[in-house]
Amino acid sequence: MSERKVYVLGGGISKMAAERPDGTIRDWVVEAVMEAVKDAGVEMDNIEHATTSYFSDHFDKQLKQGAIFHDSVGMCPKPNVRVEGGGATGGLAIRNAYAYIKAGLCESMIVYGAENMGRHVPSDTAQEFIAYASDFDWEFQIAGFYIAYYALMMRAHMDMYGTKEEQFAKVSVKNHRNAIYNEYAHQPMEITVDDVMSSPLITSPYKRLDCSLLSDGASCLIFATAEWAERYCSTWKKKPAIELVASGCGTDFMRLADRPWPYPGIAHFRAKRVASQMAYKMAGIKDPAKELDCAEIHDAYSGTELVSYEDLGFCGLGQSGPLTDEGFFDLGGELPCNTSGGLIGMGHPVGATGINQGIEILRQLREEAHPKRQVVIKNGLGLTDSHGGTGTFVAVNIFRRVD
Amino acid sequence: MAKTRKEKIEFPKLPVIKDLAPKKRGLVTTKLQVFETLDPMGPEMHWMKEFVNEEDPWKDFRLIEKIQIDQHITYRHSLGKYSKFFIELENKRFFATKCPKCGQVWPIPRPVCPNDLSICKWVELPGTGTLVSHSISRFIPVFMRDRVDIPYVLAMVRMDGAPKTLFTHMLKNYGKEEDIYDGMRVKVAYSDKPVPHPLLLMWFEPA
User: Which residues of A touch B183 (CB under 8 A)?
Assistant: First the structure.
């Protein structure tokens, strides 16, 4: 791979909310771009390329949405590509920026992501649209919605390792609490394990407060080489330099049922192990739990975050529950995870989610986060983990502060 | 009993806006609402100095109209090379595919084995198996209500004769929820009633 280095110059978010009736999806993208451009100190005229990140064509009954985002921010006639991989879409879009800049196709890239998932369709219809990301003839017909699969995976994990419902309820408590210090978050709340345990049961073992949110929102990141930044970025060397040092990607069988045993079986995310190992190798990371300062995890459901810790190599298989009890992944713990609030607290507008994660790592590594959620920067390393389906597509991106 | 949520930070709440009565919709028959959005709905642009302490930058764009859009789509959907599986369910027989090269039997059939890209053969399985994991749902989306009861049990089963991977379907007629356990023996049961999708011609029951 080329020696070229890829830097994150800035990011912007248009607020996550249950409904954003103040605008359409294109309006939110424009807001996120306006903020990212200011944050980076760059001009749109100089940005050479775009990547569009959104998941569903059903939600907005609009195909080719990338063309609209692109012309709304004055990027025509410059190149633009769309990336899609379910919940991993945003993470894959960041990977795309890495690949295009590394390959020399461009020196600078803007990545925009958004999803219109809020209440313009009933929650039932939204669940149906999301369920189209499972196999239509073999899964959708009988399961109908994703929670049933994730619940089944978590039950398998509980059977194998003795993981307890109270342990993954703590993830929901942590992520809702972290969101309190994030002005862009959809559902900031101070709740207790009891609140999670007593919220309405949806699919055993998952209760309503174990689930991520259907959110409206958009986000944007701007990437470039050092040479481009020297010429066109007014904040270069004024703000801490954050490099995108690694990007890993992994996949697994579309249907949970088809995956090999014993690993991953139906309890684990093999794609996460593949993607993270690939990324650790690129970044020269030997012990992620010790070396990373913070991580954003794809907490589609609270238990998913626990399983992800294990498959990302933060701890051994089956150890995520006990470590959560110790507060290992809390703010102030050994490796704070989902300081933004994650998908459960900040929100989950699918195409924007992975980009939100990248922005949180950018804020953390620059030490710009709200003081109550700012982590201590020791090695200057942060990770994002995005996945689609039941772990069918995974993107793991690693950022490093280099000043 | 769910406890009351304690929200520490109050974000601007959306006003409850009633849909317009048909007579008040003017020239647009699908018009639902016309309203002004609250400010700020978007993020506080704290770092954008020019917006701080100044008037709402979006003031010209706060009036919002909502309309209703209805879409009904009918597909003519081919079941492709998987069709035999579905056709045999009508005959109350459970078929899988077997790879002639590596010998793996795929209980969710595949015309081509992903291990070695060999073209598979259909084989009949006894339709019995062992429950590996399950989930019990108290909630189901509306579109599922023509096909499942609440609670519904989604089951992953290791089919006899296809040991490497699993088959996913619903578990019915299980008696009490407490009687379901991973490791229990199950069998395929077949429907005598018409169904909207052929996969619904079968389900699992305790063996």
Answer: none
